[in-house]
Amino acid sequence: MNTLIKAGAIFALMMTMATSALAIDYTKGVVKKVDLKQKKVTVIHEELINLDMPAMTMVFRAADETMLQTLQEGQNIEFVAERVKGKLTIVELK
Predict the structure, then answer these.
(1) pLDDT tens per residue across span 32-54
(2) How many independent structural domains does the chain possess?
């Protein structure tokens, strides 16, 4: 019986860890400028927890050019940014 309880506890812990790993933290921001030619977007954003950066205005590259085509100045967005080849890049939009 103890083995069964231990196995159940281990399974529950593994499922919790897997769920946590899949959770994505989105950052809120406002689009200040879209530069289709340079494939960049300027965003006034909240703290980027995953990049350990305070709230500020920054220029990001877009992982996918089609992302830029959906953005407009003044638009509220939620996004995920990461360093891709050393460049700050928006990799996901909500």
Answers:
(1) 999 999 999 999 999 999 999 99
(2) 1
